[in-house]
Amino acid sequence: MLYSKIEGEGKPFLIIHGFLGMSDNWKTLGQQFADEGFQVHLLDMRNHGRSVQSSAFSYELMVQDVFDYCQGHALQTINILGHSMGGKVAMLFATRYPEMVEKLIVADIGPKFYPQHHQTILAGLNAVDFSVKPSRADVEATLSEYITDFGTKQFLLKNLYWQEPGQLAFRFNLSVFNEKIEEIGVALPSELVFEKPTLFIRGGNSNYILDSDVEDIAVHFPLMKLETIPNAGHWLHAENPALFYQMVISFLN
User: Fold this and answer.
1) How far from each other are the two terminal CA atoms of the chain, in whole angstroms?
2) How far is CA 233 from CA 47, 208, 236, in A?
3) How many CB atoms lie within 10 A of CB 126?
4) Are 158 and 24 in contact (CB under 8 A)?
5) 15 pairs with which residues across the strands?
6) Which one, of 128, 132, 143, 222, lies nearest residue 175 by Cα?
7) Are 13 and 225 in contact (CB under 8 A)?
8) Distances 98 to 62, 76, 93, 202, 209 between C-alpha atoms, Å
9) Rounded Cα distance, 108 and 84, in Å
């Protein structure tokens, strides 16, 4: 079963991180939602965080993982939020199991196909040589040769952990992502529809959800509403957590 952190009591609310992320990224917001009377489940997807490492990786498999998690925790109806890759998982889950989902929240991703655009990040991650037992500063220096954006770099460095004394490693399964990176951009199957309240939140400085995408989104999610966080990029929930929280809680309540 997927690794999770569970906070609070009340209506089950599942939160799914993005590609190369983990449940820890949502700890602060998760606690805030728990304080509002939700039982918040912060999930680690397969090949991320502390969840199972597998050579198999696809949205269909991740949706099956979430379904199995709900069964294992006796969650019959849920609200679900996903960011980026997690948003794709949440969309597919809601369209596959609409009877289980009351409300769906998707952060800065649409149902369309996205071409592979993580090449530079993967190059930086693959350039880290853990066999020479680098320090955290060494890993950061290597990543800095490829990744200039401070926020992206810090986001990736959160995945570092001590595998054993003196030996750092990444929590995610980089070798599988190197092989299966095309899976991240896969579109939601064209025939799938979720006819319940759905909130899309995009960053005003992000190009993941364009005005021209709205018509296609509404085909899959006819009860969709779109909100924009101004001056925020793809990591909108980290860049403006207060406004993000307010939009989500208003929609849920």
Assistant:
1) 30
2) 25, 9, 6
3) 14
4) yes
5) 42, 81
6) 128
7) no
8) 16, 11, 8, 23, 23
9) 6
Max CA separation in the chain (angstroms): 53
The residue type found at 93 is F
pLDDT tens string 207-222? 999 999 999 999 999 9
Q: Which amino acid is located at 86 in the chain?
A: G
At residue 149, the pLDDT reads 87
Neighbouring C-alpha atoms within 13 Å toward the C-beta of 175: 5
- How many residues belong to the chain? 253
Residue 116 has pLDDT above 90, yes or no: no
Q: Is the pLDDT at 225 greater than 90, yes or no?
A: yes
**Is there a contact between 250 and 244 (Cβ–Cβ < 8 Å)?**
no
Q: Which two tokens stand for residue 46?
A: 């397969």
Q: What is the mean pLDDT of residues 95-120?
A: 96
Instruction: Give the model confidence (pLDDT) of 121-174 as tens digits.
Output: 999 999 999 999 999 999 999 999 999 988 889 999 999 999 999 999 999 999
